[in-house]
Design goal:
CATH superfamily of the largest domain: HUPs
CATH class of the largest domain: Alpha Beta
Strand content: 5-15%
Strand order of the largest sheet: 4-3-9-10
CATH architecture of the largest domain: 3-Layer(aba) Sandwich
Largest sheet: 4 strands, parallel
Order of helices and strands: EEEHEHHHEEEEHEHEEEHHEHHHHHHHEE
Number of strands: 15
Radius of gyration: 28 Å
Low-confidence stretches: 165-169, 420-424
Helix content: 40-55%
Number of domains: 3
Length: 476
């Protein structure tokens, strides 16, 4: 079964064929760190994390880079408003957003900051000048889009229909050769709320688009497998990234461009003007990462997703059912001591159904990461638990059932809390064994008062201790 992915560059489904003997390289555009991560950001990062997990399930090594944009006017504006330095603001929200990544179970191999790559950015702009793609105008440096023949291919636009500047990057068009040209370097005087760097063109700051291109090039090289982000970044950001990189390398840079759909809140567009921005931290605290990841996976990544409390509650119920099934299986396996000589027909039929549903889950994921369909099969697998466990469950079958549940859950990125709880439980068990072992030594030495004091302290913590001929036992 081959993996097919929708490529935003060609607008077609294509078979994913990574290079041999090399990790899959993936770059995902990160946040400008001037505020909290919202559910729209979380949806994008969660999807690309699921993508990474699935590629690893297929046996690929995956290298993921998610950048941190810490040089930007939005940071400067907040710093000025709050009478702080931009670095304070950027550091605060860099830490906050990395904490949210951790809560969501999202991991990247690197989180580069734009401020750490100024020298490389300047060097890349100079190369674009040498190649004839960039020009300086009164301290600003622009990319001449009419010199780059492929400009507009990603967004499928004609030059005359374009408007490339974002609201925070508007520069007087009298400096430009063409209205569509975009900024690589902006001349600026420094202040306490606006850091600047020296460059061959004078003091200034890099443009937003060049930051991502250079960080991706520096860490992943001049050919990467997947470049992703929200659909709002397709133009102009990703269009400009292609021009900036291929203008220097002369070769194709990205094999697959992938974009996630926008998130609406209770049927409305999410925006500050409507006052309906929902932070990732808020929903994580209310529903937990397992439920949020299930909710995110409940919509196809390319489609818009509507966040609502009702959907979050439904996802939480589904997560709790899955979690309880896993706990129930573990408990049954732990208490089951017999291994049958052979499996009955009912056991074999059950296993066959499990394998069929797992295969359908994989087929759905191979179809451009169709997580809604994959979850349907996952829920079907979970629903089999009651009927099988209520009869005469066999330990080997239950172990296989549990492995499949954990395997598919790991792709979606749920049950991470279970792993943490299990790890903590093992630590508690180890600590209790050591404490009660010490207590046993004290009893052998007839130091009963100290031994009883230790037992009393343990029981005050809600742990019941029972002495037996085979040694102390406990239960929480």
């Amino acid at each position: 079964m081959s993996l097919n992915i929708y490529n935003s560059f060609t607008n077609e489904m294509e078979e994913f064929k990574p290079r041999k003997d090399a990790p899959v390289k993936m770059y995902v555009c990160g946040q400008t760190v001037y505020d909290y991560m919202h559910v729209g950001h979380a949806r994008t990062y969660t999807f690309f994390d699921i993508l990474k997990r699935y590629l690893e399930f297929l046996g690929h090594s995956v290298m993921v880079v998610i950048n941190i944009t810490d040089v930007n006017d939005k940071i400067n504006d907040r710093a000025e408003k709050e009478n702080r330095s931009p670095w304070e603001v950027a550091e605060e929200f860099s830490i906050v957003n990395l904490e949210d990544f951790d809560s969501l179970g999202i991991e990247a191999d690197a989180y580069p900051r734009a401020s750490e790559y100024i020298e490389e950015i300047i060097d890349h702009i100079e190369k674009l000048e040498e190649e004839g793609f960039a020009y300086e105008a009164k301290g600003d440096v622009f990319f001449d889009v009419r010199k780059f023949d492929k400009y507009g291919e990603l967004s499928n636009q004609r030059l005359e229909d374009m408007r490339t500047e974002r609201e925070d990057e508007v520069i007087s068009t009298d400096k430009k050769r063409n209205p569509e040209d975009f900024v690589l370097w902006r001349a600026r005087e420094g202040s306490s709320h606006s850091p600047v760097w020296s460059s061959p063109w004078g003091e200034g700051v890099p443009g937003w688009h060049i930051e991502c291109s250079v960080m991706a090039l520096s860490l992943l090289g001049d050919r990467i497998d997947i470049h992703g982000g929200g659909s709002d970044l397709l133009f102009p950001h990703h269009e400009n990234e292609i021009a900036q990189v291929e203008g220097v390398t002369g070769d194709k840079w990205v094999d697959f461009w992938m974009h996630t759909g926008m998130v609406h809140i209770e049927g409305e567009k999410m925006s500050k003007s409507l006052g309906n921005i929902v932070s990732a931290r808020e929903v994580l605290e209310e529903y937990g990462p397992g439920a949020i990841r299930l909710m995110m996976a409940g919509s196809h990544y390319r489609e818009p997703m509507d966040f609502s409390r009702a959907r979050a509650e439904e996802a939480l119920k589904n997560y709790q059912k899955l979690k309880n099934t896993v706990k129930g299986l573990k408990a049954e396996i732990k208490t089951s001591n017999t291994i049958p000589d052979k499996l009955g027909e009912e056991d074999l039929d059950f296993l066959e159904t499990l394998f069929e549903l797992k295969t359908k889950f994989i087929e759905a994921m191979n179809d451009d990461f169709n997580t809604p369909q994959a979850l349907k099969y996952f829920y079907e697998i979970e629903s089999l638990s009651n009927s099988y466990l209520s009869k005469d469950p066999k330990k080997p079958v239950m172990k296989r059932f549990l492995r499949i549940m954990l395997e598919l859950g790991s792709i979606i990125g749920i049950f991470e809390e279970e792993k943490i709880e299990e790890g903590e439980s093992r630590k508690v068990d180890s600590l209790l064994r050591k404490i009660l072992g010490l207590r046993e030594e004290l009893r052998k030495e007839e130091k009963y008062e100290i031994a009883d004091s230790i037992r009393d302290k343990i029981e005050e913590a809600g742990i019941e201790v029972e002495d037996s001929d085979r040694g102390p036992r406990w239960k929480i």
